[in-house]
Automatic annotation (TrEMBL):
It comes from Calidris pygmaea (Spoon-billed sandpiper). GO terms for molecular function: ATP binding; protein serine/threonine kinase activity. It catalyses: L-seryl-[protein] + ATP = O-phospho-L-seryl-[protein] + ADP + H(+); L-threonyl-[protein] + ATP = O-phospho-L-threonyl-[protein] + ADP + H(+). The keyword Membrane does not apply. This is Serine/threonine kinase-like domain-containing protein STKLD1.
């Protein structure tokens, strides 16, 4: 019975492509099924039809909002039920067309950007977004709506997915994302979710070699501020330490800022992070990685000896005897401190 109902909806949408009211009515009827978990397999078959309706009637703000809301509900249900959703490039291109057509509508952009963040977790979807030139659109949205926490959270999440991709991304485009992502983190330091997303994006951008020497010190200082404001968030701590480690591989400038920051020595932040996340192996491993990157600089070695980092490393070693990655990093750090 349910299957027959959905087949009727398919036929209806296909028969009246050009009629905006018909498409919007179909989307509203489909929306009435989103809370029925048993309907999810049928709703998933409608993602392309919904996207096509949105693309056909891209000028209709109401249809864009209704279509995005329904897609968001469907994907959220799929996520809750651990259902993998493969969306083709027609869906991503439709969403980008919506972004470009309604670039000043904050409410709609908030919905679309949340959708883009959800689908960009898929490598295929991320690649489709990259090919479609999504990054300049995301940066334009961020510049216009820097105050909007949801938009910043979503756009930085998409940036992270696209910048972390192994496929070649236009370096010039990615470099233009650095000041915008910096501005997002600066604006939303106190919002843990947004800060976490921005720190992750900065880490990905640093890995892609997008930071210039002039960026090293201010980004290091801002990442330290993010740690101070949100020390309890393990993902933020983990990715911020990875971003700092990436910077330290490039230059001594971040290392000096780390130990001489006017707001307090960054080594104390490492100790505090370990105190909060001592039972989180990934965070601890990234702490050890960061320590090793810092120890390549003589001034830092002296400071770490003064701060008695050997005690912390010995504690880590006794706490994770079976984690070879951590043990290797700890042994390397202890060796440098004892030279």
């Amino acid at each position: 019975m349910v299957r027959r109902i959905f087949l009727v909806y398919v036929e209806f949408m296909q028969a009246f492509w050009e009629v905006e009211e018909a498409q919007d009515k179909a989307i509203q009827l489909l929306a009435s099924f989103v809370r029925d978990k048993s309907a999810l397999p049928y709703l998933l078959t409608f993602t392309e039809l919904i996207a096509f309706a949105m693309k056909t009637h891209v000028d209709s703000l109401k249809l864009q909002v209704d279509g995005c809301s329904l897609l968001l509900e469907i994907l959220s249900q799929a996520l809750e039920q651990d259902v993998v959703v493969a969306l083709d490039e027609n869906v991503t291109s439709s969403l980008l067309e919506t972004v470009r057509k309604h670039s000043e509508n904050e409410e709609l952009l908030s919905l679309v950007c949340t959708l883009l963040m959800m689908i960009s977790a898929s490598e295929v979807a991320a690649e489709n977004l990259r090919k479609a030139g999504a990054i300049p659109d995301l940066l334009s949205i961020l510049r216009s709506f820097l105050h909007n926490e949801q938009i910043c959270l979503s756009c930085c999440g998409v940036l992270w997915s696209l910048a972390a991709s192994e496929n070649n991304v236009d370096q010039a485009v990615l470099k233009s994302a650095v000041p915008v992502t910096f501005a997002v983190l600066q604006e939303h330091l106190q919002n843990g979710e947004v800060a976490e997303s921005a720190c992750s994006a900065l880490w990905a951008l640093s890995l892609q070699g997008c930071l210039s020497e002039n960026d090293y010190e201010p980004i290091t200082a801002l990442l330290l501020d993010a740690l101070r404001m949100n020390p309890e968030r393990p993902v933020l701590v983990k990715n911020t330490f990875l971003a700092l480690a990436s910077l330290l591989r490039l230059s001594e400038i971040p290392a000096l800022r780390f130990i001489m920051d006017p707001k307090g020595n960054g080594i104390n932040l490492i100790k505090y992070a370990y105190h909060l996340h001592f039972d989180h192996p990934e965070v601890v491993e990234n702490i050890c990685m960061l320590i090793n990157e810092m120890l390549q600089y003589d001034e830092v070695v002296l400071d770490m000896r003064f701060q008695k980092m050997e005690e912390l490393l010995s504690e880590i070693k006794s706490s994770f005897p079976s984690r070879m990655e951590i043990m290797t990093l700890v042994d390397a750090a202890l060796l440098k401190l004892q030279e």
